[in-house]
Amino acid sequence: MLVPIAVYLELLNILGRIMGHEIAARVAEELSDHFVILNNISSASLLASLKIFSDVPSGVSHTDCLVMASCDEYGTSDIFGFDKAFVRLGYRIIT
Predict the structure, then answer these.
(1) CA pair distance 57, 47, nearest whole angstrom
(2) Are residues 71 and 95 in the same domain?
(3) Distance (Å, rounded) from C-alpha 40 to C-alpha 36?
(4) Is 72 helix (H, G, I), strand (E, B) or coil?
(5) Which end of the chain, N or C, is less packed with Cβ atoms under 10 Å?
(6) 5 in Cβ contact with 70 (< 8 Å)
(7) Per-residue pLDDT tens over the stretch 20-56
Protein backbone atom coordinates (compact mmCIF):
# COMPACT_ATOMS: atom_id res chain seq x y z
CA MET A 1 0.00 0.00 0.00
CA LEU A 2 1.41 3.39 -1.01
CA VAL A 3 1.17 5.87 1.85
CA PRO A 4 2.22 9.52 1.57
CA ILE A 5 4.36 10.50 4.56
CA ALA A 6 1.77 13.11 5.56
CA VAL A 7 -0.86 10.38 5.94
CA TYR A 8 1.51 8.15 7.91
CA LEU A 9 2.31 10.98 10.33
CA GLU A 10 -1.36 11.90 10.66
CA LEU A 11 -2.17 8.26 11.49
CA LEU A 12 0.48 8.22 14.22
CA ASN A 13 -0.70 11.54 15.66
CA ILE A 14 -4.35 10.50 15.80
CA LEU A 15 -3.64 7.04 17.21
CA GLY A 16 -1.24 8.54 19.73
CA ARG A 17 -3.82 11.03 20.91
CA ILE A 18 -6.64 8.48 21.13
CA MET A 19 -4.83 5.32 22.25
CA GLY A 20 -1.50 6.50 23.59
CA HIS A 21 1.95 6.66 22.05
CA GLU A 22 2.96 3.09 22.91
CA ILE A 23 -0.03 1.58 21.11
CA ALA A 24 0.37 3.97 18.17
CA ALA A 25 4.02 2.93 17.79
CA ARG A 26 3.06 -0.76 17.93
CA VAL A 27 0.35 -0.30 15.29
CA ALA A 28 2.81 1.54 13.03
CA GLU A 29 5.33 -1.28 13.43
CA GLU A 30 2.72 -3.92 12.56
CA LEU A 31 1.54 -2.01 9.50
CA SER A 32 4.98 -1.03 8.25
CA ASP A 33 5.46 -4.31 6.36
CA HIS A 34 2.38 -3.45 4.31
CA PHE A 35 3.21 0.21 3.63
CA VAL A 36 5.46 1.80 1.05
CA ILE A 37 6.00 5.24 2.57
CA LEU A 38 6.24 7.97 -0.05
CA ASN A 39 8.80 10.12 1.76
CA ASN A 40 9.36 12.50 -1.11
CA ILE A 41 6.21 14.03 -2.45
CA SER A 42 6.87 15.18 -5.98
CA SER A 43 6.40 18.81 -6.90
CA ALA A 44 3.81 17.69 -9.44
CA SER A 45 1.77 15.88 -6.77
CA LEU A 46 2.04 18.81 -4.39
CA LEU A 47 0.85 21.26 -7.06
CA ALA A 48 -1.93 18.85 -8.06
CA SER A 49 -2.99 18.51 -4.42
CA LEU A 50 -3.26 22.30 -4.13
CA LYS A 51 -5.43 22.41 -7.27
CA ILE A 52 -7.69 19.69 -5.86
CA PHE A 53 -7.74 21.48 -2.48
CA SER A 54 -8.92 24.72 -4.07
CA ASP A 55 -11.79 22.92 -5.81
CA VAL A 56 -13.20 20.72 -3.02
CA PRO A 57 -15.59 21.58 -0.18
CA SER A 58 -14.00 23.05 2.96
CA GLY A 59 -14.56 19.80 4.88
CA VAL A 60 -12.00 17.97 2.74
CA SER A 61 -8.50 18.18 4.23
CA HIS A 62 -5.37 18.96 2.30
CA THR A 63 -4.05 15.55 3.39
CA ASP A 64 -6.99 13.94 1.58
CA CYS A 65 -6.16 16.02 -1.48
CA LEU A 66 -2.56 14.84 -1.29
CA VAL A 67 -3.81 11.24 -1.21
CA MET A 68 -5.88 11.87 -4.34
CA ALA A 69 -2.99 13.55 -6.13
CA SER A 70 -0.69 10.66 -5.19
CA CYS A 71 -3.25 8.20 -6.55
CA ASP A 72 -3.35 10.15 -9.79
CA GLU A 73 0.45 10.15 -10.02
CA TYR A 74 0.63 6.38 -9.47
CA GLY A 75 -2.32 5.62 -11.76
CA THR A 76 -4.80 4.19 -9.27
CA SER A 77 -8.24 5.23 -8.09
CA ASP A 78 -8.21 2.87 -5.08
CA ILE A 79 -8.00 4.57 -1.69
CA PHE A 80 -8.04 2.98 1.72
CA GLY A 81 -10.04 5.55 3.59
CA PHE A 82 -13.37 6.53 5.03
CA ASP A 83 -14.16 9.96 3.60
CA LYS A 84 -17.09 9.86 1.18
CA ALA A 85 -15.53 12.83 -0.64
CA PHE A 86 -13.16 10.36 -2.28
CA VAL A 87 -16.10 8.58 -3.93
CA ARG A 88 -17.76 11.84 -4.98
CA LEU A 89 -14.50 12.83 -6.67
CA GLY A 90 -14.20 9.58 -8.64
CA TYR A 91 -12.03 7.42 -6.41
CA ARG A 92 -12.89 4.00 -5.01
CA ILE A 93 -12.70 3.28 -1.31
CA ILE A 94 -11.32 -0.17 -0.56
CA THR A 95 -11.79 -1.98 2.72
Answers:
(1) 18
(2) yes
(3) 12
(4) helix
(5) C
(6) no
(7) 999 999 998 888 888 888 888 888 999 999 999 999 9
